[in-house]
Specification:
This protein has 16 helices and three strands. By secondary structure, it is mostly helical. The protein folds into three domains: 1-42 and 176-244, Tetratricopeptide repeat domain (Serine Threonine Protein Phosphatase 5, Tetratricopeptide repeat, Alpha Horseshoe), CATH 1.25.40.10; 91-163, Alpha Horseshoe (Serine Threonine Protein Phosphatase 5, Tetratricopeptide repeat); 265-332, Tetratricopeptide repeat domain (Serine Threonine Protein Phosphatase 5, Tetratricopeptide repeat), CATH 1.25.40. It has a two-stranded antiparallel sheet. A hairpin with a 2-residue loop joins strand 2 and strand 3.
């Protein structure tokens, strides 16, 4: 199926049929359909902090302290026979002042400087949620996804009502195949934003992957209710009905999908599959023929048509379709 989840959330989940099997997979991007749920899923790496977030010593832990202390030049020793105690350097600026400085940098597009200022602000006041929020946005713009996730986590910790942070985290997790975490974030998001069709779509994909089909059905239905033109939600809903043996509902949904888009080849193929499973072989033949008019090179449609002819006792026609199927398969 085409890439289901576009970049709103843009959402990564998609279904396709092969023979009589209908497979679901998130691609979120794509469940981006975030629905960008379709870049290839990224392999999630352990979250690490960049030098902007923390400075790690490059000195091996086993090195004696005396060896890593900076040596005082001899000239300095002669000039100062009585060393003065070192005074700690106190950085000026309150947390609000540093936040305002960060905002100036942020608005000027000086994102690294903005991150530095926001970090210093949150060092002084660990509850400054606005600084964490803007820091997360700056990291996002810099392409530092792990750092952005850390900052957004802090945002929702300090402000559990920040629904946009939940949505953004959900999309981050979805792209990294952290599906359980993504599901939790989308559930929290829709609790305060029940009008986002893409969020419901992504939830449907995630529930389906966990085989929570009843919840997935509700999520897809809600996505369609909000956006009656949501073709991918229609398609995935039909696939769930097909997989769970609810054939009448599957036929109804696929027919609605085809009324919206008569060239939806996946929906047309699955409609033929449902007809065959219900024993409505004449309808299955008609659906296969229509599909092959639109897509003559569809090997699976030839196989399904051959199998349907076989069940009708039309052996000659069945053999012709099977021969076409084998020719197409071996040609590839």
């Amino acid at each position: 199926m085409k890439n289901p989840c576009k970049a709103d959330i843009r959402r990564s989940l998609t279904w396709f049929c092969s023979g009589f099997l209908v497979l679901l997979f998130i691609i979120c991007s794509g469940c981006e359909k975030q629905e960008e749920i379709t870049e290839a899923p990224e392999v999630f790496k352990e979250i690490v902090l960049t030098p902007v977030e923390t400075q790690l010593s490059e000195t091996p832990a086993s090195t004696p302290l005396a060896e890593v202390q900076q040596t005082i030049p001899a000239q300095a020793v002669q000039a100062s026979p009585s060393p003065q105690p070192t005074q700690p350097i106190v950085e000026s600026g309150t947390a609000p002042e540093l936040y305002r400085e960060g905002m100036e940098f942020f608005n000027q597009g000086r994102l690294e400087d903005a991150v530095d200022a926001f970090n210093r602000a949150t060092d002084r006041d660990g509850t400054m949620v606005d600084a964490y929020r803007k820091k997360a946005m700056a990291y996002q713009k810099l392409g530092l996804a792990n750092e952005a996730m850390l900052a957004y986590r802090k945002v929702v910790e300090l402000d559990p009502n920040d629904s946009e942070a939940y949505l953004t985290l959900g999309n981050f997790y979805l792209k990294r195949r952290m599906n359980h975490d993504a599901l939790v974030m989308f559930e929290k998001y829709i609790s305060g934003n029940p009008k986002n069709a893409n969020a419901y779509y992504n939830l449907g994909c995630l529930y389906s992957e966990k085989k929570l089909f009843d919840k997935a059905i509700v999520a897809y239905q809600q996505a369609i209710k909000i956006n009656p033109g949501y073709d991918d939600a229609y398609y995935n809903l039909g696939v769930i009905y097909l997989d769970t043996g609810r054939y009448n509902e599957a036929i109804d949904v696929f027919q609605k999908a085809l009324k919206r888009n008569s060239k939806n080849l996946e929906a047309r193929y699955n409609l033929a599959v449902v007809y065959a499973k219900k024993g409505l072989y004449d309808d299955a033949v008609a659906a296969c023929k229509k599909l092959l008019e639109l897509d003559p090179g569809n090997a699976q449609a030839h196989f399904l048509l051959g199998d349907t002819y076989n069940k009708l006792g039309r052996d000659k026609e069945a053999k012709e379709e099977f021969d076409l199927y084998k020719k197409m398969i071996f040609a590839k």
